[in-house]
Amino acid sequence: MSSSAPSHQTAVLLPTASVAIFSRHAETLEAARALTQDWRFARVTVEAHEGDTDTAIATYQRNSSPDMLMVQTDNIDEGFTDKLGELAGCCEEKTAAVVVGPVNDVALYRRLITMGVSDYLVHPVKVETLAEVIARALLERLGVMDSRLLVLLGTKGGVGTSALAQAAAWTAAEKLGQKTLLLDMAGGWSSLGVGMGFDPTTTLSEAARVSNRGSAEDLQRMFHAASPKLSVLASGGDVMLERAIAHGQMESILDMVLPQFPLVILDTSGAPESVRQKAVVRANGLFLVSTPALSALRLSRTLIQEIRSLRADADKVLRLVINMAGTNPASEVREGDIKEALEVEPSAVIPFLPKLFMGCESEGQKILDIREGEALAMSKIAPLMRSTVLQGMLEGSADKDKDKADAGGGFLANLFKKK
């Protein structure tokens, strides 16, 4: 019989999972549907079914069971525990189970826990209690899923790093289904508010202060919701002629937001050098943005060498993106020559599309709303992300699921041990 108070251990982004709740009480079903508003459940699919234990049995005789199953009953006699055993026989061994009953019965609670049920709740169940119990059960079964940090680093000013960061954020959120946060480290020099359609309401230093001393909810008040799956830190109010952020402050912000978002995209094009260095070290994926111009490519070569000196796995996380190809074809370095000179093959070559990118920035248009922009997102940006940060997320999920499966697990195993 669980407490509804959120704990530090469950104040994290929950792993990818499926949860099914069976109840004939409107209050419980409404509480279940409200879980989609909890940031921790961004990767959790919650299905609320009007039904009871018999309904769940009929459902999982035909279908695979979820990672977690919750059933509500108004009857807690021996017949219910027999039905619970029948339900266990329909479920996969990894499935966790929670029961909601009508009365506070310590003896029943102990018996259910012995059977392998994760928790017993008493009706009515508040949203906060439901969220806490499900979060605890999923973390016990599946563990904490690591989020991913994608860093975009420009070789010089004017290569289009910020425009590509915004395009990557829209692509990840709208086309690849990832709950995403976009951060711009340029402080008062940031033009993100223009491109994303918001007025700056905070500064990077204030965000860092809240990350050190406040709560996740306090920091969330500084986000602009660009879409249901894309949030942006509404910074840009910093003093332009002062340093906006130090690397330790950036790390405080990242430490706060990474447990909340599966994907965090960091635009470092206007950041101080120390911030860029720390971002490179922490990145799960690093897009080095250049143009085919000789001056930009010379800087690319130097940066690649420095990145390799900082990270032994640099070639695994680093992707070279050649932007604005075709601006002046006669003066540009050819793609084959770029590979030979840098010893890195460009992972994506993006054509010069001034009307698209300048239109999006000046008019606050979403790049995916323009046919040319959507085509670019799906042909260039999405494959690049699938091969780096998103591939890492999928591999992490598979490894953790395998570890949990090998460890044995849900209430089915314990029920069979009783027989």
Structure description:
- By secondary structure, the protein is α/β, with parallel strands linked by helices.
- It has 2 domains: 137 residues, Rossmann fold; 250 residues, Rossmann fold.
- Helix 6 crosses helix 16 and helix 10 packs parallel to helix 11.
- It contains 18 helices and 13 strands.
- About 4% of the residues have low confidence.
Instruction: Give the DSSP E fraction (strand runs of 2 or more residues).
Output: 15-25%
Which stretches are low in confidence, meaning pLDDT under 50 for 5 or more residues running?
394-408
> What is the C-alpha radius of gyration, as a whole number of Å?
25 Å
Q: Strand order across the biggest sheet? A: 8-9-7-10-6-11-12-13
Largest sheet: 8 strands, mixed
Large-scale geometry = elongated
Straight-line N-to-C gap: 25 Å
Provide the number of structural domains.
2
The CATH architecture category of the largest domain equals: 3-Layer(aba) Sandwich
What's the helical proportion of residues?
40-55%
Q: Which CATH C-level class of the largest domain is it?
A: Alpha Beta
Rounded mean pLDDT score: 88
Number of helices: 18
CATH topology-level fold name of the largest domain:
Rossmann fold
- The assigned structural class equals alpha/beta
Count of distinct strands: 13
CATH superfamily descriptor of the largest domain: P-loop containing nucleotide triphosphate hydrolases
